[in-house]
Amino acid sequence: MRYYIWHDEGSCDNCVDDDLGEALRIAEELECDGHEGVYISDENHNLITLTPWELSVDLVRDMHADTYRALYEALEDQNYHPEALVLEAKRTGNRQFAERAEALLAAQMAAGELTPNLYAKRQALRAEMAGVRNATIH
To answer: Which residues pair with 11 in a beta bridge?
Structure first.
C-alpha cells in the first residue's frame, strides 16, 4: 500500500511505500515545520488519520483491508488502545458498537486513566463484537 502525505492546500511531495508509521512521522515533521493542512491518503484516496472518532462508520467499514490493518496497528503500536477500539467498532459497521466505543474513549479521557470499570466495559464490548463476527462467519 502506498501512502501520500499532503500539505499546504494540496501539495504532495512525499510518498511512502508500505510503512504507515513512516508516513505518520513525515506528516508530524511537516506540521512541526509549520506546514498547514497536513494529511495522509492511501493509494485508493482514503483519508488516513489517527483520530478514528472523526471517521464515519461507513468509511471505516468500507476501508481497504491493508489501510485498516495499517491504521489499527499504528494505533496499537502507539498504545492508543481506546482509539483502536473505536476503529475496530466502526469496522463492524454497527453504529451502536461505534457509539459505545466512543463513549468509553470519552470516559477514559475524562478519568485520565483506564479504570477497572472502564477496562471491564472495554473487554465486554470486544467480546460482544467478536461474538457478532463469529456468528456472521458460520
So the answer is: 7
Q: Can you tell me the distance from the alpha carbon of 66 to that of 109, in angstroms, rounded to the nearest whole number?
A: 29
Q: What distance in Å separates the CA atoms of residue 89 and residue 96, rounded to the nearest whole number?
A: 9
The pTM (predicted TM-score) of the whole model is 0.69
List pLDDT tens digits, range 72-116: 888 888 788 999 999 999 999 999 999 999 999 999 999 999 999
Spell out the residues 6+ positions from residue 8 whose beta carbon is closer than 8 angstroms to its own: 35, 36, 37
Cross-strand bridge partners of residue 2: 17
Domain ranges of the chain: 1-48, 52-138
The DSSP line for 40-104 is: EEETT--EE-S-GGGS-HHHHHHS-HHHHHHHHHHHHHTT-HHHHHHHHHHHTT-HHHHHHHHHH
Give the dihedral sign, CA 91/119/117/111.
negative
CA angle at 93 for the pair 111 and 123, rounded to the nearest 5°: 40
**Which helix (H) or strand (E) is 16 found in, with range?**
strand 11-17
